[in-house]
Structure formats: structure tokens, C-alpha cells
Amino acid sequence: MIQIIPSIWISQGKIVRFLQGDFSKGEVFDDSPMDVAKQFEDHGIEVLQLVDIDGARRGAPINYGVLETLAAHTDMKIDFAGGINTGGAIGKAFELGADYITAASVAVNDPDIFADWLVTYGRNKITLGADSINGTIAIKGWQKTTDVDLFEHIDYFYQRGLKYVKTTDVAKDGILEGPAFDLYQQILDRFPDISLLASGGVRSIEDIERLNDMGVFAVIFGKAYFTQKIKLKDLKKFLVSS
Fold first, then answer.
1. Cα(27)–Cα(116) distance, integer angstroms
2. pTM value?
3. Burial 182-219 (b: 16+ CB within 10 A, else e)
4. Which parts of 20-163 are beta strand (E)?
5. How far, in Å, CA of 36 to CA of 34, rounded?
6. Which pLDDT tens digit goes with each residue over 79-129?
7. How many CB atoms lie within 10 A of CB 84?
8. Which of 78, 122, 163, 238 has the fewest CB atoms within 10 Å, measured from its CB?
């Protein structure tokens, strides 16, 4: 069964969402991160993705305080992302309560460091963030494009023991027009042993059902919840503990 992972994006301590990675097309939500996290937990969701948008832009985490608070006051496992580029940053994230981390920019800028993390911390703790625009990797909160091919990038770490990869087609993010089903199928076909976390464009329970049928390991969604396209009660059938 596909794993359900809601995503909270944090900027200046507030929950935010953006369209296709464009920070000029953003929306700030009034809900507090703690209140939203508690709602998820109360409905049986066990894993939360917390994205430090400020950290992604800066290149070093900033919103550690939100991570520490959520880890201290919920029992959910937290996947922390956003600006983790050094051993110090990853160590602090784990110290403050992260159960997993997702890193993207460091895997492009210094692939040896990321490959070493797979060994040092264990491949069950580290997710490769491999988000793409037109088939090439985008980093630093999608503000910087590269000429790194998505499939070659995944393959490099797949050959070095990578287990988890999170992929967003940036063109799909925040517009609620459906996930990049074709892209995800290509990844699953090429890397049959990978655990794929699909993110971006999810707009309905039907989208999640289709991803589940494809064999996607987990689905990450955010805006569909905040705009009430997806109701937590409708996710019950996907939750192991329900």
C-alpha cells in the first residue's frame, strides 16, 4: 500500500505554498504548523515531510525551531528537507528530531558527500531529492536549473545503494492538474528496486489510487489538502493503522 506523506512548507515560521517553484506566486496559510501536524496525526498519518523553504533558498536550514517543536509534540516521523548541504546540518536535523532527511543540491554540487551519507547514516535515513524541469535537475528550492539529466542523476546514486528518491516535475507543482504519471512510470521501469516518492500535482484520491496501482512507494501532497481537494477522512483506506 502506498504511503501517505503530507508536506508542510515553512517560510519565516509560516506555512506557504508556491506555484511551480515561483516564489512570486505564493500563498501564506493562517494555520500553525503544529495545528496542521496534529490534524494529520489524529487521522492516523505517521510520516510528515517538513520543507524549510528559507533553508533551500539560502543553502542552509533556518527553520530548525519548527522541526524541534513538531518532533517534541507529535509522534510522527519527520522527513526534513531544505538546505541540508553539510554533515553539520544533517547531524543537527537528526539531533532535533528528524527521522529522515531529503537532500537535493548537495547531490549535484558534491555527489561524493551525498553518496557517503548513504553509508554513514544508512540508506533508510536518506532520500535523494531529484526534482526536474524538462528532464534536468533543479536545485536550491527550484531556483537554479542545471544541465544534469534526471535519469543519469538517479542512476549514479542507485549504483551506490540509493533506496529512496523523491521526484517532482516542477511544472506540475502547485497547479493541481495531476501528477507526472508518465515520468514516474519511466523511473519505476528503469530502477525497479527504487522506492519512489511522487510529489507535485496531486489533486484527488483518484490520483493517489493510480499512483498506488503503479507501485509508487509514497505520495507527497500539500496544496490539495490546504485547498480541501483532499479530505483526511478520505485517506483512511491508505493508512495502515486505520
1. 37
2. 0.92
3. ebbeebbeebeebbbbbbbbbbebebbebbbeeebbbb
4. 22-29, 47-52, 77-81, 100-103, 126-129, 132-133, 136-139, 144-149
5. 5
6. 999 999 999 999 999 999 999 999 999 999 999 999 999 999 999 999 999
7. 30
8. 122
Grid look-up 495531476 returns 178
Q: Which residue has the cell 536550514?
A: 61
Report H helices in 121-227.
150-158, 181-190, 205-214, 223-226
Looking at residue 110, the DSSP 8-state letter turns out to be -
CA 167, CA 104: separation in Å to the nearest integer?
Answer: 10
Parse the chain into domains and list their residue ranges. 3-238
Tens-place pLDDT, residues 31-88 = 899 999 999 999 999 999 999 999 998 999 999 999 999 999 999 999 999 999 999 9
Which residues face 15 on adjacent strands?
A: 10, 29
Rounded CA Rg of the chain: 16
Tell me if 215 sits within 8 A of 162, measured CB to CB: no
- As a whole number of angstroms, the longest Cα–Cα distance in the chain is 44
Identify the DSSP state of 44.
T
